[in-house]
Amino acid sequence: MTDDIAFDFELWLKSFLELIFWTLLLLPVIIFPIFFLVLPVIFDAAGIRLGQLDSVQAINVFFTALIDPIKGIQYGEVIAKEAALPLGLPFILLNGMLIGIFLWENELDKVTISKYPLFKQLKEITTGTKEQVGLFSLLPVIRDVKIARFVNPLFSPLEKFYNKIFHQEIDDNAQNN
């Protein structure tokens, strides 16, 4: 009686792998039609053609550039001009970089670019300070991020270089007086 209801791990593993295989095999059948139903409307609304006659051909060029960089390199400039710039990619990257710097400042209790009033206000709104919680600090994932180990190798040499230059200028000015 116990043999009939026993758990067979090998059979379960085999059926689980089959499920993953068929899901991966059928995923393009489900996902690509959604892309080709939604993206033409978005490309038409944004006026993105990528040098093609219509938006469906532009989507083909876009996916070709994503999948095969060697073929897509010829469209790189057009994609940057027509897709990335109008859709706000530079601003998204700039905001991500500023939020990363603000998180780094909060983690190490330093003040770099947030000493300027506009950046200080942006920091107070986005990541907050010790006294005040910002919008991104409310998210538990962002609150627990320790960014200093990734950013310190980039900022430490710049900070040392900056201090070396401006401390030397201060010393030169003091000697002249």
Main beta sheet strand tally, sense and closure: none
Oligomeric nature of the chains: single chain
The end-to-end distance, rounded to whole angstroms, is 99 Å
Rg over CA atoms, rounded to whole Å, is 26 Å
**What letter string, H or E per element, gives the SSE order?**
HHHHHHHH
Coarse morphology? extended
Q: Which ranges are low-confidence, i.e. pLDDT below 50, for 5 or more consecutive residues?
A: 170-174
**Secondary-structure class:** mainly alpha
The percentage of residues in β strands lies in under 5%
Instruction: Give the fraction of residues assigned to helices.
Output: over 70%
Mean pLDDT: 80
Question: Total helix count?
Answer: 8
Q: What's the number of extended β-strand segments?
A: 0
How is the secondary structure organized here?
Blueprint: H1 9-46, H2 55-67, H3 69-72, H4 76-84, H5 89-108, H6 117-126, H7 140-143, H8 148-176
Helix pairs in contact: 1-2
Give a quick summary of the entry.
The protein has 177 residues and is mainly α. Helices cover 72% and strands 0% of the residues. It is built from 8 helices and no strands.
Your description of this structure?
- With 177 residues, the protein is mainly alpha-helical.
- The protein contains 8 helices and no strands.
- It has helices spanning 9-46, 55-67, 69-72, 76-84, 89-108, 117-126, 140-143, 148-176.
